[in-house]
Amino acid sequence: MKTAQVIMATGANAAALAVKSARVDVIPGYPITPQTSIMEAVAGMVESGDLHARFIPVEGEHSVLAAAVAASAAGARVFTATSANGLLYMHEVLHMASGGRLPVVLCNVNRGIFAPWTLWADHQDSFAQRDTGWIQYHCSSNQEVFNTILQAFRVAEQINIPIMVNFDGFSISHCLMPLTIPAQEDIDRFLPPHQPEWRLDPAHPSSFSNVTMAAEYAPFRQMLSDDIMAAVPLVKQAAQEYRDCTGMWDGDTIETYRLEDAEVVALAVNSMAAELKLSVDILRGQGIKAGLLRPRLYIPFPADDIIQALPKNAQVMVLDRNYNFGHPGGILAAELKSILFGRRNDVTVKNRVMGIGGIDLTRRFMAAEIRAMIDEQNGVL
Questions:
Q1: Nearest to 166 by CA among 363, 355, 26, 299
Q2: Fewest CB atoms within 10 Å of the CB: 108, 147, 264, 303?
């Protein structure tokens, strides 16, 4: 393990530096706040010669992902990024990438979606794409953004499924934090050059994504579903091997904090989960045995790891930054209840939707909300 470099960087710069470290071949891009800084940084690296890649500016996000699909099908290591309405515009091609089994890595900088317009973060954009066949990571720090992009390429290229790396707009994308960049030699050891099993090649003609009849179509969809579930051990393996190569660890599918003796467990993703560690400390100071469980992997949902990590008789307080329209509360709470059903009848679940459209979520605010949820759960008026 070689000497690492420590700098100050925003989350957007951390993403761009990870793209450089991954030695990506092709980057189609289009600007959208708050993702634009990633594409600006990557384009600058390509122009200066610091990144030997093809940057393709196009006319919109649908074309961004169409270009990414084409480049990946031709055998390139491909990266792109977007936010909010840009991700929604990609929706059709998201299905093409996953159904075509193309290992594209995409950063989505979380931002609320219209109408009305907002520039600030919540998680409706990425959670709205949960059924498109993409694996999804959710990051809580700039360092984790850097580390996860590299791990995402490793996993995507092993299983030939695209991966979305999500992190909050502004609170991560535009905030400076210390960033440790491992030596390129160590990164190359972890992520060797991409060697696709198949690619479009005029010298060896083949077809891609043709029309099928039901008898052929159904097995392809079942295979994608099965392989997404099979990604969990690959995520764990990539996290462990990344630690072996670089000494850095973010957790594999989940991260926990003060969970061992917890009676009350806060569950959330992204930057709000990082702030919740401080909320847990506040609650501990008030005599409440609180802990945190953060799903780092959302798709596939790490059911077994969550079930095993939750203490006996835990009161789980899910803080959702999204709406599960048509049902009360948020999407994470619904996912949690689904995996607990019939397996952990000792666990209770309460839910709050908060932080929509970028409303600030301070440690004191979230601690107070959790305290109120505990009172509700215990029948305290």
A1: 299
A2: 303
